[in-house]
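QA checklist item 7 of 12: single-chain prediction sanity check.
[x] sequence parsed
[x] length recorded as 276
[x] structure emitted
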Amino acid sequence: MDTAQARGGEQAAQVATTEQAWPWHQVALQTEASATDTGLGCVSLGKLLGLQPLDRVQLNDARQISEMQLAPQMGYGQLELPFLFFQRVLPDGRLELRSPGGYQTYASPADVCDVIPGTMLKVRAMPRQVFLARLALPHNEIGKPPGVECYASASVLYVEKDRWGRVDRTFVWFDDDELNDAEAAWPGPIHPDDRAAVASQARRACMPVVTPKGGASYSASQGTAASASNAAYAARRFFEAAMQGSDVLVSALAGIGASKSATPASINRLLYKLGD
């Protein structure tokens, strides 16, 4: 019994020493404060993923999948595993995500199983502090157009539309963290020169769009089936070329396989030019 206890104590000491050297169990959801205390720097798995606003992420999360299984009963039809638009990394390390219709949820970065790069939309928006300061201006000055110094660079997270389908509010996250509210995104006024770009991309294939009628798909899976089919076709032709021993075709297909615009038609045209 004494020998077993001694061995158990030695194993516990070894585990403690290993955790002190590199606390793996703290990396998945590491907050910035605790990261600094452990000497890891401001490290979190959510930030290490390198996600950008409006990237689409697929979750392997039991709760999300359970909600997805209710989607057909709610009139959404059969859906792929939940693809959601990435919004931001929360201070506690979790990911803030939204569906195409604006449904907000949070997930662990460890549950991300696929990422589809999106198109980040940069705009010039008015921070909350500047907006409130302008409200305190005299009546004869508040009506004057704000200058360029009243705006700051920000990324669009999602938009709200009115009953006529026009963009009503644009929710953003500023590049300068000091301008952000940690609780939620800010619907700041957008620079007049950037409003047209927001209106042109304010559709659920590109970003979450909240409307009075709702009715959006639960999963941001639009186009994912076609993309997967194209990738599978490119991979099949690649292996066929490799089995034939054609270095020219292998080299060509290795390059086109990483292209998002690769389609069976474009692959066939390439192979035809190379003499397949």
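[x] summary fact logged: DSSP finds ten helices and nine strands in the chain.
[ ] second reviewer sign-off
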